[in-house]
Amino acid sequence: MKKLLIALMTTTAALSLAATAEAADKLKACWVYVGPIGDFGYSYQHDQGRLEAQKALGDKIETAYLENVSEGPDAERAFERLAREGCKIIFGTSFGFMDAEVKVAKKFPKVMFEHATGFKTGDNLGVYNARFYEGRYVLGQIAAKESKSGVAGYIVSFPIPEVVMGINSFMLGAQSINPNFKAKIVWVNSWFDPGKEADAAKALFDQGADIIVQHTDSTAALQVAEERKLHGFGQSSDMIKFAPNAQLTSLTDEWGPYYISRIQAALDGTWKPDNVWLGIKDGAVKLAPYTNMPDDVKAMAEATEKKIAGGWNPFTGPVAKQDGTPWLKDGEVADDGTLLGMNFYVKGIDDKLPQ
Amino acid sequence: MDITVNILLTIATAATPLLIAAIGELVVERSGVLNLGVEGMMIMGAVGGFGAGYLTGSPWIGLIAAIVIGALFSLLFAIMTLSLATNQVATGLSLTLLGLGLSGMMGTSFVGLPGERLPNLNIPGLSSIPIVGKLLFGQDPIFYISIALTIAVTWFLFRTRTGLTLRSIGDSHTSAHALGIKVIRYRYLAVLFGGACAGLAGGHLSLVYTPQWVENMSAGRGWIALALVVFASWRPWRVLAGAYIFGAVWIGQLHAQAFGIPVPSQLLSSLPYLATVVVLVLISRNKRLTMMNTPASLGQPFVPDR
Fold first, then answer.
1. How confident is the model at residue B75 (pLDDT cuts 50, 70, 90)?
2. What are phi and psi of A71, to 5 degrees?
3. What is the mean pLDDT of residues B88-92?
4. Contact, A156 vs A124, CB < 8 A?
5. Cross-strand pairs, A321
6. Is the pLDDT of residue A9 over 50?
7. Could you give the number of structural domains in chain B?
8. Which domain holds residue B259?
9. Secondary structure string (H, E, C) spanning chain A
10. Do the chains contact at A39 and B254, CB–CB below 8 Å?
């Protein structure tokens, strides 16, 4: 047994050495994912971006990734390990990696770091994020058009600004079509538990919702919609295969173009840390093909998508907060800072925001 | 009325995987072995069941594959702890870690593919009776297996000679050994049974509950099953009660949220755990009875002196 173990260990060591030796003349781009790439959701989409970059830049680069890295001390070790292994540009894809990445970036000033969804930057650390709320406004409009009961079920994970922003944007979209539109909100307190998400969907449908929206990662809720012959929206990736008759569209993340442009900049030597918040117009937020809806709804959705791509912000006044106090004046546009720290609901939402 | 039936059906689906995995682990622990690898065996069953179901197009073959893979995976634990007398806690934990990793690797090509769902039972005439028809005759096959398992295990443990022998091994393996009982053989079979059950529970996840494969999809259900066994003080019907209380409170809190009851959702989400613990502690208040039910040599390695 012992001999076997030693043999195994030597082989692995030899293999990893071989990999590093080969990498010498290529630019090595690396990723750190918070979930498994097999989640068919958030981390999966980042990995699709990595594969796109690998494909587009071909043999000029080499890519590597670490998946399932938990936020905290583990993350710091992960970043440090990648930096030591010769990664020239490293993408950390979860909000919770922020402090770890800041620390490691200071230690390795020659390595380029990029952090998704965070707000701390440095001399060699940039941040990038996507305006998912833009897509959620379109979902809200479709839901209000397609729902017969006038009630949507909304499955959510944790009350962080990103999620609250999404609910608000969805409701503003829905209210623009049907001012009395309601959403029943259920917090499952988990990003990823297919069983819980399915249960939540069933509960929401049982209580009269006929369209399901989610800010969790699995396809489970859509599968329930398919079974009940009702409708819903996908999340992170196109989930049409799981619900060919139920999915109206899916709010997908497309990181590929951004990764390609950043790695290209690194290759050209023009890379500088930046702070970008990409939206529909940049192609980072995409809506999967509109299906299972009449042509006029589809046309409306496409028009809204175009309007947003043209620079219009769903958070344009007049908008009141949940308790009726005015928030945005007529024509006033919410600033990014408020959105990124959003901790209140807009008017017309029946839920009490967990604090 | 429809909503009540729907709620009950949802509860049954949520409780079934917990019940099956816990019943399996109960038999293992009754034999004096503590296998903390339930989560790992469950997720292996889930990936195996999904894979076999997807590749053959038959969810029934998937179901059998889930059971077989769960059992095979537990064999690894049995060889380590029973034949090589390793530490059961450490081996069980590593079985869970191994299962989570291995299943992710095995399932890479299944990600993003819709799976085959096991069809619900449909008996013409009976299944369409209002209210009870759907509840009694219209659920998924694994639901019926879970109830049958609970009955069978109760009967086996408390009404058969073999069951008595198994319990005696759990209480004192040295005495059992002195009486000429083949302790290791019994434990091997118990561990394999536990593995098969955990595998079946995993199969329920990927073939009925949410017919898909994603990494980590068991999401801690193996650990809940483990806890249920302890809180149920190693009694099969209490395990069933625990699993259903857990399911009922969980589904109940989802409905409360959707209904708009203004209670913090974090508190509501923790309710199933709290409620299950409280109820099971209450029903096992009798200390003497609990002591009697606790397998005395649980977790101790056994090395026959010759």
1. very high
2. -75, 135
3. 94
4. no
5. A346
6. no
7. 1
8. 2-293
9. CHHHHHHHHHHHHHHHHHHHHHHHHCEEEEEECCCCHHHCCHHHHHHHHHHHHHHHHHHHEEEEEECCCCCCHHHHHHHHHHHHCCCCEEEECCHHHHHHHHHHHHHCCCCEEEEECCCCCECCEEEEEECHHHHHHHHHHHHHHHCCCCEEEEEECCCCHHHHHHHHHHHHHHHHHCCCCEEEEEECCCCCCHHHHHHHHHHHHHCCCCEEEEECCCCHHHHHHHHCCCEEEEEECCCCCCCCCCEEEEEEECCHHHHHHHHHHHHHCCCCCCEEEECHHHCCEEECCCCCCCHHHHHHHHHHHHHHHCCCCCCECCEEECCCCEEECCCCECCHHHHHCCCCCECCCCCCCCC
10. no
Residues of chain B in contact with residue A196, where contact means CB-CB under 8 angstroms, are 219, 250
Inside any domain, residue B305: no
Assess: ipTM above 0.95.
no
d(CA B84, CA B79): 6
Distance CA A142, CA A233 (A): 10
CA distance A345 to chain B (A): 15
Residue B131 DSSP label: T
pLDDT tens sequence across B160-197: 999 999 999 999 999 999 999 999 999 999 999 999 99
Closest residue on chain A to B202 (Cα): A195
- Residue B299 counted as domain residue: no
Task: Out of A40, A188, A198, name the one closest to residue B214 (CB).
Answer: A40
Q: Which residues of A touch B258 (CB under 8 A)?
A: 153, 184-186, 203-204, 207, 209
Q: Is the dihedral of CA A103, A107, A109, A111 positive or negative?
A: negative
Each residue's pLDDT tens digit, A83-135: 999 999 999 998 889 999 999 999 999 999 999 988 888 999 999 999 999 99
Q: What's B261's DSSP letter?
A: -
Q: Classify residue B76: in a domain, yes or no.
A: yes
Query: Rounded to an integer, what distance in angstroms lies between the CA atom of residue A121 and that of residue B19?
Result: 49
- Kindly state the average pLDDT of the residues A294-319: 93
Cα separation, A216 vs A239, in Å, equals: 13
Structural domains for chain A: 2-130 (3.40.50.2300), 132-253+285-340 (3.40.50.2300)
Closest chain B residue to A206 measured between Cα atoms? B3
Measured between alpha carbons, how far is B213 from B47 in angstroms, rounded to an integer?
Answer: 7
Going by C-alpha positions, the residue among A57, A60, A112, A124 that lies closest to residue A86 is: A112
pLDDT for A352 beyond 90: no
Q: Which CATH number does the domain housing residue B51 bear?
A: 1.10.3470
Q: Measure the CA–CA gap between A230 and B191, rounded to whole angstroms.
A: 43
The DSSP code for B118 is P
B134 assigned to some structural domain: yes
Q: Scanning every residue of chain B, which has its alpha carbon at the shortest distance from the alpha carbon of A153?
A: B258
Distance (Å, rounded) from C-alpha A9 to C-alpha A17?
12
Q: How far is B289 from chain A (nearest CA, A)?
A: 35
Q: For strand A319-320 and strand A326-328, is the pairing parallel, antiparallel, or unpaired?
A: antiparallel
